[in-house]
Amino acid sequence: MAMRLLFVDDQEENLKSLALGFRRSDYEILTALGGSAAIEILKENNVDVVVTDLKMPEVDGMQVLSHCASLTPPVAVIMITAFGTIESAVEALKAGAFDYITKPVNLTELRVQVEKACEHRRLQKENIYLHSEINKRYGFEGMIGQTGDMQQIFEKARLIAKSKATVLIEGESGTGKDLLARAIHYNSPRSRHPFMPIHCAALPETLLESELFGHEKGAFTGAIARKEGFFELAHNGTIFLDEVGEIPASMQVKLLRVLETKEFMRVGGVKPIQVDIRVICATNKNLAEEVEEGRFREDLFYRLNVITFHIPPLRNRRADIPLLVKTFVDEFARENGKTITSITKRAMAQLTSYHWPGNIRELRNCIESMVVFAQGEELDADALPEHLHPGAGREMGDFFSAPIGQTLDVVEKKYIQETLIGAEGNRTKAAETLGISRRTLQRKIKELGIESG
After folding, report:
1. What are phi and psi of 85, to 5 degrees?
2. pTM for this structure?
3. pLDDT band of 84, cuts 50, 70, 90
4. d(CA 57, CA 133)
5. For residue 350, what are the CA distances in angstroms to 38, 104, 173, 329, 444?
6. Which residues make beta-bridge pairs with 310?
7. 450 and 413 in contact (C-beta within 8 Å)?
8. Helices (DSSP H) in 139-229: which residue ranges?
9. Could you read off the pLDDT of 134-153 as tens digits, one per residue?
10. Residue % of the chain over a pLDDT of 70
11. Last residue of one domain, picked from the residues 282, 297, 312
12. 3 state SS of 97
């Protein structure tokens, strides 16, 4: 689409000359005889660049500039001024004009200025588009939930997004804790600065300190150059510590110090580094219980537990499943170039009755599989994964029961054993189903004496 220019002058001959000078360009040209006419045109048309005379009766160029600046996004303005009014042109620049040019107008110079203004406008539009795409994906609008609990979470998140307070998000694996963290960041004053996600359980204890705080050259074997850590890279933005409950005790002390002082030292460093960051943490554990069991520092827990969210598992918000299904069907149909117009009542009934141990992540993967293998425009229950079918063998979706009177350790041991069987011995899958990390599962297997199998 051609960029649209608006020439503004109170002299008709000047307007004709300007329009004539751009007749062979690729721009769409509009003209306005005076400032009042220009403002009316701007109200009715999307204009990219305005070229206006500064001195005009009644409504002058500064008033046109003021109107352009009030638009969203602001329209680029090039001011034409006589040599004797340079000071006014400088004032126009301070008020937001893109540039100015003096009379008599040099058309070659003006064309260069217009092209620069158009490029500025293109970048401006691209930036707006990218931010809208980010908001679609990571804004609150991109989060799905019509149940009362989810609506309360969204409303609370909107209220605290603009604050600097530390946030703790609790919930089972796959419930969307990372999406909520991103939504809070992208709706905060820090949205134009980095969002740094760190999966604490995925980093070995030996590397965790170096990854979080960085290291100096020669700090340890293999440190051949200085490296900035995640906290340093997140300066002015947000750091997201996923599975914060997996951080070992030695690192919990250092994390507490960063939260209290907003400064740290690289591994091997001697100079404190100050950072301005917001910390958002997530966990699939009950940190209060972890404190009671002595596995998590009480002082760190209270430092993290400033604003808390608990995202309910999908089985507790079944009313959201049809909306989630439709969203995922549309997404994967678009990605795979397919036309899916509907899903049968039988398929939807089975989707809503299943208890989804892997929560939204598992549902999303299920729908992707159904869409990829779809032969027609309707998804039927036959396309569901085998373990979602009624009467299927012992799978991840079956119920678990234990007689009253057994100790908690015995029940927990049996439940983990059954989950491992359902996961065909896959510990990563079993840990995801149980809502714990693979490291925690391995510890429980050892503590409870569960056969490796």
Report:
1. -120, 35
2. 0.62
3. low
4. 43
5. 61, 76, 22, 16, 33
6. 170
7. yes
8. 148-160, 177-186, 205-213
9. 555 555 655 788 888 888 99
10. 91
11. 312
12. coil
